[in-house]
Amino acid sequence: MEKTDLGGMRFLIHGFLSPDECQGHIHASEALGYEEAAIQTRDGGQAMNKAIRNNDRILFDDPALAQRLLERARPWLPDCLDNEWQLVGLNERFRFYRYTPEQYFKWHRDGAFQRSPSEISQLTLLIYLNDNYQGGATQLRDEADIRPETGMALVFPHRVMHQGSPITAGVKYVLRTDVMYRRIEAGA
C-alpha cells in the first residue's frame, strides 16, 4: 500500500484492497440486490432527489468487515483529530454504490453517523472496487479529479464538498463507510 497526500486530511491509499477482494465485494453486492439511493435530509430522514443523486445503493451492517478494514487502514488514519477526537474504529454500517451510464451523485457533503453523544464519524472512507468504466471521476472542491483505481481508497473529512461525475460507459462500484472518533474527555 502507498499513500498519496492530497492535503487537508484528504488522501489516497493505493492498493488498499486486492483485485480479487474487490471482485468478491462486487459479486456479494450484486447478490444482495441494489435499490435506488435516497439522499439524507436535514432532519436526518431520507428522500429521493434524482436531480442530486440517481445511482443505486445497498446499506448493510458487517462488524467483522469493519474490523478487518480498520486493521488495514489504521496506519494511515489520523489517531487524533483537533486534540479533541480519538480514533475508535470504522462504522459497521457499509454502503455499496453502483453507477451505470448517466448515473451520478452531484455536489454534496457526507452526513455523519452518531453512535452516541460522544462518538461520531468524522471521515469518509471510499473504496473503489473497479476501474473498467468511463467517466465517474470523484471530484473534490479545489482538487483535480480523482480517477479511481481498482482497490484504491479515498479518505476525506465529511465536510469536504465532492461529487461522483456521471458514468459514460460501463459500471462503477464503490464500497463506503465512515471513520469513527470518540470525544476525548477533559483531563483524560
Structure description:
Its cofactor is L-ascorbate. With 188 residues, the chain is mainly beta. It has one domain: Sandwich (Jelly Rolls). It has two helices and 18 strands.
Question: What structural keywords apply?
Answer:
single chain, about 190 residues, mainly beta, Jelly Rolls, eleven-stranded antiparallel β-sheet, three-stranded antiparallel β-sheet, 2 helices, oxidoreductase
Present the secondary structure layout.
Blueprint: E1 2-7, E2 10-14, H1 19-32, E3 35-36, E4 39-40, E5 46-47, E6 56-61, H2 63-73, E7 80-81, E8 85-90, E9 93-99, E10 105-108, E11 114-116, E12 119-128, E13 134-135, E14 138-140, E15 153-157, E16 162-164, E17 167-169, E18 172-183
Antiparallel strand pairs: 1-2, 2-15, 3-6, 4-5, 6-9, 7-8, 8-18, 9-18, 10-16, 11-12, 12-15, 12-18, 13-17, 14-16
Distance between the termini: 34 Å
- Looking at this structure, what is the CATH superfamily? q2cbj1_9rhob like domain
Number of helices: 2
Based on the coordinates given, report the CATH architecture. Sandwich
Total tally of structural domains:
1
Query: What radius of gyration results from the CA coordinates?
Result: 16 Å
What composes the largest sheet?
A: 11 strands, antiparallel
Would you tell me which CATH topology applies?
Jelly Rolls
Low-confidence stretches: none
The general outline is: globular
In total, the number of strands is: 18
Summarize the structure.
The chain has 188 residues and is mainly beta. It contains two helices and 18 strands. It has one domain: Jelly Rolls, CATH 2.60.120.620.
